[in-house]
Amino acid sequence: MRPLSERTIAITGATSGLGRLVAQDLAATGAALLLHGRDAQRLQQTIEEIREATGNPHLYPFLADLASLRQVERLADSITVSQPRLDVLINNAGLGAGPDPQRRELSADGYELRFAVNYLAPFLLSRRLLPLLRREVAEAGSARIVNVASAGQQELDLEDVMLEKGYSGSRAYCQSKLALIMLTLDLAAELAGSGVTVNALHPASLMDTRMVREWFGTPQTSVAEGARHLERLAIDDALAGVSGEYFDQDRPARARTQAYDPRVRQRLQKLSRQWIEAATGSCENCG
Which of 171, 213, 234, 277 is the Cys-Cys partner for 283 at CB 3.0 to 4.6 Å? Predict the structure, then answer.
């Protein structure tokens, strides 16, 4: 990869929690950062604060609500049009169980909200940005996708992925994170030998974030601990070429068994493309 100061790194969910701290840490290296948020005022404030703290002028805002797959498409298009290359994509944005874990919520496209934001959005964004990541491989030899998953995982019922029966916020969150690990394994296999690596991680347990405080009350670990492990996967040259792994912090680990079933992953991919096509009118550029 290029020297850190010459890399371009995209981070979703960069205005709070883990994404916010990782953005500031990586800005201090001099890297160009493409920072995503869904609130324009908060996004601009984040950029101003990080710029003041680090002196890095290469911070660029990208506004999108990941609960809308059309907005995810526009986000990918905006990045592609404005950037000559992309070294790292960090799919960090996500939703927890929600303030009322028993209330099922829907995305702008009518899909279960946590599944839409935590899985379908990175599915579409990653695939739409693959040409830009491949361009970086042609120039610098490698590029990376890092997916922020969780140790909280639950098998998917492929007959009721949207949880129309027996809904709980915890189940919705946990199945979306297992689906994200399945995406990681599929992309890594598809991109093997291309120079684009794809890994997922559980950064830390119950970090001090709004999501955790809302869901569990008292945090158990700091955001800084999770940031350290995420940054390692994103920029550490020692991990060059490592792909298709699920990390528990800094250690390769095993996800739930269903993640390694190729038939389940194939079925989920097919369904995912159907859902994206139904929401956007096309899935030509989503794999």
Answer: 277
